[in-house]
Amino acid sequence: MTWFSSKYGRNSGSPFSRGILAIVSSLAVLCFFCFPATPASAVTAREILDRMDDLYRGESSHGEMTMVVVTAHWKRTLSLEFWSKGKEKSLIKILAPIKEKDTATLRSGNEIWNYLPKVKRVIKLPSSMMSASWMGSHFTNDDLVKESRFVEDYDFEVTFEGRRAGKDIVEVTCIPKPDAPVVWGKVVVVVRLQDYLPLESAYFDEELHLARTMTFSDVRTFSGRTLPARMVVVPADKPGERTEVTYREIAFDLDLSDEIFSIRNLQK
Q: CDD domains, per this entry (predicted)?
């Protein structure tokens, strides 16, 4: 029995729950997560980007993580619980500290709401807020809900394959399509050659200046999947600042009710 099923209910009995698949990302294509040590040329740029987008999702997911935000003036630590179902539904709730407990963000389809328990208000976010900071961190609302997908919103190609900084890597450069609803002017993704797990993503603004760098580390196995448990975002214009996210638990491919992703549940 998984951590989730023991806490919340029945596991779907997916291939993951049976321990059949060993993988990296939470992306939806199950066989993709086996990560054999095949050469990079055997995997297309499209497959690498799909893995990146789905790394922490799967058909559904539920877990807990710790987020630490460090700025020039303060440090803040949040304990978070999250759920996802398909590519359209996500819910994140703050568990601690007490003063922020139950603050939550819900995405259903293309709509996003925040719940502020102090004032007991649900606020719908406009799409223009997707690039805004989430809860004072260096992650954006789009990072949390993953509205955009690389293969849908960017043109892309492998721009480097070989050894760099002592590691065998594949680099994929992504340029947004003319009408894509994305906030970046370019994104450069670097993955490990041996298993295509992400090492780094560099995000550039519309003038192609580096805006932030996201690094991935602390590879662990959750529910039969292998993925980086720690992500760190460093803004280029504030190198002394960062946001760290560490996954404590993740369960994949669960039988989650749609009620979890409702406005009513957002306020509980």
A: LolA_like (cd16329)
